[in-house]
Amino acid sequence: MQLYFKPGACSLSARIILTELEIPFESIEVITERGTTIDGRDYRAINPKGYVPALEIEPGVIVTENPAILQYLADLQPQAGLAAAAGTFERIRLQEWLNFISSELHKAFAPWFSGRSIDEGERSRAEIILARRIDDVERGLSDGRRFIVGEAFTIADAYLFVVLNWAGFISFSLARWPTVADYIARIAARPTVRAALVAEGLLQEEAAQ
Fold first, then answer.
1. This model's pTM is above 0.90
2. Which CATH number fits domain 83-191: 3.30.70.1650, 3.20.190.10, 3.40.50.300, 1.20.1050.10?
3. pLDDT reported for residue 206
4. Residues 6+ apart with CB under 8 A from 177
5. DSSP per-residue string spanning 106-159
6. How many CB atoms lie within 10 A of CB 143?
7. Strand ordering across the sheet containing 54-58
8. Average pLDDT, 10 consecutive residues per value, the chain (209 residues)
């Protein structure tokens, strides 16, 4: 199994889940600005969409789109409990959060990762939209649940953590959302999350001990 990734991108959540499940895999870095893999291959020949992640399950069998990849991985080992069983209402709640993260929260960070500089006015408008989406997460956690779907860590937490963690990279303070900040710290403390961060060069190995 091969994971095509970019350090710190949403593909990090797939790495976290692969690590949680102890599934052997090879990770191949993608330089999306060039459209190539780190070893010089044309990435669009692998994933014509040009972005990460892509998961090659076996030669020629490739899955794209983060929610689909995460759901596929969770269903490989249902006993691990990283996704509720198909046909249950809990599964619907999980998919509800996966879709929100992908279509709303992830998208709200897009102005900062567009590859161009943004002026102060554009940044202010983008921050208003981002704040509304983080408000949604704060409300979702307001009943005291430890994880976004309930009391157990799921694939939605891996994805949500990665996206929320981008706030630090764009210097966007989460002080207004203490529940969200506590949630991020809780997920970041998981050994598998720390191992994934180390693997992508986002955390020094000594700090992960």
1. yes
2. 1.20.1050.10
3. 58
4. 134, 135, 137, 138
5. HHHTGGGGSSS---HHHHHHHHHHHHHHHHHHHHHHTT--SSSSSSS--HHHHH
6. 8
7. 36-37, 26-31, 2-5, 54-58, 61-64
8. 97 98 98 96 97 96 98 98 97 98 97 90 97 98 97 98 97 97 97 97 74
Q: How many CA atoms lie within 13 A of 62 on its CB side?
A: 17
Both tokens of 41, joined, read 């291959």
Residue 207: per-residue pLDDT: 60
Do you find a cis peptide bond into 59, omega within 30 degrees of 0? no
Residue 29's alpha-carbon distances to 26, 38, 39, 43, 107, in angstroms, are 10, 5, 8, 10, 22
- Quote the CATH superfamily of domain 2-79+196-204: Glutaredoxin (3.40.30.10)
C-alpha 175/C-alpha 172 separation (Å) is 9
Between CA 3 and CA 10 the distance in angstroms is: 12
Amino acid symbol at 54:
A
- List the chain domain ranges: 2-79+196-204, 83-191
Place of tokens 């720390």: 194
> Which residue, among 35, 30, 37, 40, has the nearest Cα to 10 in the 3D structure?
30
